[in-house]
Amino acid sequence: MKLPYAEPYRIKMVEPIRQSTKEERENWISEAHYNLFNLESDKVFIDLLTDSGTGAMSDRQWGALMTGDESYAGSRSFQELYQSVNKITGYRYLLPTHQGRAAENVLFSVLVKDGDIVPGNSHFDTTKGHIEFRKAHAIDCTIDEAFDTELIHPFKGNIDLVKLEKVYQTYPKEKIPFCLITITCNTSGGQPVSLENIKAVRDLSNKYGIPVYFDSARFAENAYFIKQREDGQQNRTIKEICKEIFSYGDGMTMSSKKDGLVNIGGFIALNNEEIFRKASNFTIIYEGFITYGGLSGRDMAALAVGLDEATEFGYLESRISQVEYLGNQLIEMGIPVQRPIGGHAVFVDALKFLPNVKREEFPAQTLAVEIYKEAGIRGVEIGAILADRDPETRENRYPKTEFVRLAIPRRTYTNNHMDYIAAALKNVFDRRNEISSGYKISWESEIMRHFTVKLDKA
To answer: What InterPro entries would the database entry show (predicted)?
Structure first.
């Protein structure tokens, strides 16, 4: 008989987690003003808030931690990280940062100014926040297929070239500092971008003289989908595909807490020496010296190993197969999710799950709270609260989709946990018609409100 799939690792250390009662959870979420970010972690049984920095490191990474070089300037650990990044991306210049949004802050301080236009595929929250904080505008050019959750399309993260060219034709070149390609595209459901589309965006951008940058937090997962789904890519290694992806860009930002397989860290990688010099000044101001940028030597050493491990097929197959395992269970139960299943998370379609909850009462947030109360599972809303207010009109923005993202930490939970999650969602789904009201905002910050927002029952 054919041997069943088995994870390419074994468990060496475990961390206890505590189950709570439904009464406890209802009290805790009320005290947290119905914002799952406000919960203390020991009040969560299975934490799917994010896959950012929540995974488990390998024995090789823990070993690298012990040999980290903590020299202030020019440490050996920086050289190890540089060699790893250069091997995978081909980029000549590297600036470490303490995490991905810090990389955005440094690079956008150089490139983005008042009145600029930054087109791309469904910019994520911190990315859009950094753009709008500088009084610039992010324009979503994602293909329309991405917003039909039932439609099967292999690359729902793709940029619509017609939409992109319209941006290039509408605004002067001087107002478009770059096109940003997010791989994989988190906001549209962890959906990949095809190699063909990346190359086409590069060619179109060259025609108009516009640079191309990558938001690369999940670049290895994107390369996995290219290998699995795109014609002519099946016999290539993940590292070969990654090298070609980055050859079509001028640089990248990276949240290393995702496909770097570490708990903290980020970086900027570039080919342009002038931009590197300018960004170096902001790195020194905001982060630290240019050869550590807010990271310890041991963190850089672990990241160098993590990037190598994350770009191996066996690891990626294990990681993405577990996400698909959960997603397929939900599909079999009739629960509406973004299809096909993305690389790092299952995105539950809250508009179809809770049709009786008004948009202005935030159905995705309502569903996320119900899932927590049901089973102690913490997900996150990717909907109107995250979409924030229009910076000019201050009206709520209502995106085309309202998701609850169940982000799966890397090498952390077993499939028994996935079974538990699926059963919990089925229980909520079975009583969905009893849920007819959601929440209203009682307090919010001026930008990126979803992290700290306070809610009351509507």
So the answer is: ArAA_b-elim_lyase/Thr_aldolase, Beta-eliminating_lyase, PyrdxlP-dep_Trfase, PyrdxlP-dep_Trfase_major, PyrdxlP-dep_Trfase_small
- Give the SS3 label for residue 333: coil
Q: What is the pLDDT of residue 87?
A: 98
Q: Which listed residue (47, 51, 125, 259) is catalytic?
A: 125
- DSSP structure class, residue 323: H
Q: Is the peptide bond before 184 cis (omega within 30 degrees of 0)?
A: yes
Helix (H, G, I), strand (E, B) or coil at 410: coil
Summarize pLDDT for 72-123 with one digit per residue, the tens. 999 999 999 999 999 999 999 999 999 999 999 999 999 999 999 999 999 9
Residue tagged 């999650």 (tokens): 421
Catalytic residue (one of 91, 124, 372, 403): 124
**260 and 379 assigned to the same domain:** no
215 is catalytic: yes
Active site residue 125: yes
Residues 111 and 40 both lie in one domain? no
Specify the pLDDT at position 447. 87
Q: Which of 102, 217, 350, 375 is catalytic?
A: 217
Number of domains within the chain: 2
Where is the domain boundary, 280, 310, 340?
310
**Same-domain pairing of 286 and 330:** no
d(CA 175, CA 276): 21
Domain of residue 63, CATH code: 3.40.640.10
Active site annotation includes 358: no
Please identify which of the residues 215, 259, 299, 388 carries the catalytic annotation: 215
Whether 81 is covered by a domain: the verdict is: yes
Cα 192 to Cα 226: distance, rounded to the nearest angstrom: 8
Which structure tokens are listed for 437?
Answer: 């009201």
Tell me whether strands 380-382 and 403-407 are parallel, antiparallel or unpaired: antiparallel
Q: Are residues 274 and 168 in the same domain?
A: yes
| Residue 134 three-state SS | coil
Residue 72 designated active-site: yes
23-40 per-position pLDDT tens digit? 999 999 999 999 999 999
Q: Is residue 357 part of a domain?
A: yes
Question: 216 and 183 in contact (C-beta within 8 Å)?
Answer: yes
Nearest to 204 by CA among 254, 154, 169: 169
Task: Please tell me whether the overall predicted TM-score, pTM, comes out greater than 0.90 for this model.
Answer: yes
CATH label of the domain that carries residue 365: 3.90.1150.10
Q: Coil, helix or strand for 54?
A: coil
